[in-house]
Amino acid sequence: MYLPSAAPRPRTCRTQVTRALPAAALAVTGVLALSACGGAGGAGAAVASAPTKVTVDPGDGAKGVEPGRQISVTAKGGALTAVTVTDGGGRKLSGALAAGGRTWHSAARTVPGATYTVQAQARNDDGAKSGSKASFSTAAATDENTNKLTLVPGTAGAKVGVGQPLSIRFDHPVTDKAAVERQLRVDAAGTEGSWGWVKDHNGSDRIDWRPRTYWKPGTKVSLKAALSGVDSGGGRYFARDYDLSFTIGRSQVVKVDIAAKQLTLYRDGQPVKTLPVSAGRRANATWNGKMVLMAKEGTIRMRSETVGLGDAYDKMVDYSMKLSTSGTYAHAAPWNAGKFGRVNDSSGCIGMSNADASWLYGQLNVGDVFEVTGSSEDTIATGNGFGDWNVDWAQWQGMSALK
Questions:
Q1: Are 246 and 279 in contact (CB under 8 A)?
Q2: In a domain, 341, yes or no
Q3: Assigned domain for 7 exists
Q4: Same domain, residue pair 53 and 170
Q5: Where are the beta strands (DSSP E) in 193-279?
C-alpha cells in the first residue's frame, strides 16, 4: 500500500498518462505510469511517475557467466513485489526479498551449462506497477570446471548394517570443505551424529557421517546434498543436487579374536555361532580395529601382485566379503584346511572353510561390523574402507570442517 510522505493536495481530476520513454528503458522495465493532476484553482499539468529501475546481476544477455554465483535483483525508485527465476528445464530457483523489497537474492547458486530467465515485478513510490525480464547463461559444464561424487550406500532404499557410515567421496579435491559441508543435511530420526572429513585410501577427499555409537536397527536415514552450483575449490563446481535414503537393518557384529583364531557372530548382542579361522601370519598380519563390511563379492580372482606381494598367490576365491580398500577380506580358504583354529597362516585375510564361509556370507549384510582384536598389526586407517569407528567420538567431531 502506498503511503504519501505529505498530505495530498485537493484533486479535481485524475488522468492516465503514458510517458514516452526511450526504447531501451521500455524493454527493460515495461513501465506504465499513473499520476494525479489538477489543483484547487483549476486544471494542472500532468506529471508522470518515475518508473522503477530494476537491475539484474548477472546482466541481461550475459554469456559464459562463471558458475556458482547467486542471482541478485535490485529495485531503485520503488520496490520489488515478486521475482521468479527459472532454468532451461523450467525448474525454479528459490530466493527471498530483503531491504523492504529493494533487493532479491537467490538461495541457490547457478550451475554450469545453464540458461536462467529472471522475471521481476515492481511498484514505484507512487504505486505504479511495472515488469522486467532478463536472461543469461553460465559457462558450459566440462571436466575442468565440475566436480562429481560417489555416495555410499550406493543404492536408493538400501538396507544396511549398524556400522554403515553415510559416505561421500569426491572425484576432485575439495578445498572449501566448510562450504560443501554446510550444504549437507542428514535426517536420522534424532540420532546424534557428525560429519568427519577423511582421506580415502585412494587419495580422494571424502566426508562421512556416522552416529556416536552404532545405528539403532530400523532407523531411516536420508541425505539432502544441496550442492548445485557450490564451488568446491580450484574453479570446480557441482552441477546438481543429490538425495539418498536408506534403512538400518538388524544389529550384527562379527568379533574376530586373532590370538584365539576364531570369530563369533553376535546378533542383537547375543552370540549366534563361533567359527574357527586362520588369519594373517606375522609377516602379513591382519589389521586390528573395526572394519565395516563394504561389499559381498561372491567368487573373485585374488592376485597377490595387486596388493604388493609379488607372485605369492593367484586364486579364485569363494564367498568373498570385502573389509578394506587395500584388500582385506573374509572368505573361504580351503587350501588352509587343517589350520583353522590352530595356525594363522594367510596373507592378511580372514580365512575359513567353505561350509563356514558359506554360512557367514548368507547371514551378513553390507554395513555389518567386524571387530578385530589380538593382532600384532596396527589399527586400520580411517580412510581404508570405513575405519570411522576406530576414532573416538570427540576426535570424530573435530574432523568436521564446521567445528
A1: no
A2: yes
A3: no
A4: no
A5: 193-199, 205-211, 220-225, 231-233, 236-237, 242-248, 252-257, 262-267, 270-276
Residues 120 and 151 in one domain: no
- For residue 180, the surrounding DSSP H or E stretch is helix 177-181
Is the Cβ–Cβ distance between 93 and 99 less than 8 Å?
Answer: no
Count: domains in the chain: 2
Active site residues: 331, 349
Domain final position from 82, 110, 137 = 137
Residue 156: name the closest of 243, 222, 245, 240 by CA. 245
How many whole angstroms separate alpha carbon 204 and alpha carbon 270?
38
Q: How far apart are CA 231 and CA 147, in angstroms?
A: 9
| Cα 37 to Cα 16: distance, rounded to the nearest angstrom | 9
pLDDT tens readout for residues 252-274: 999 999 999 999 999 999 999 99
Tell me the C-alpha distance between 286 and 132, whole Å.
68
How far apart CA 62 and CA 120 sit, in angstroms, is 17
pLDDT by residue (tens digit) across 46-78? Answer: 555 678 999 999 999 999 998 888 999 999 999
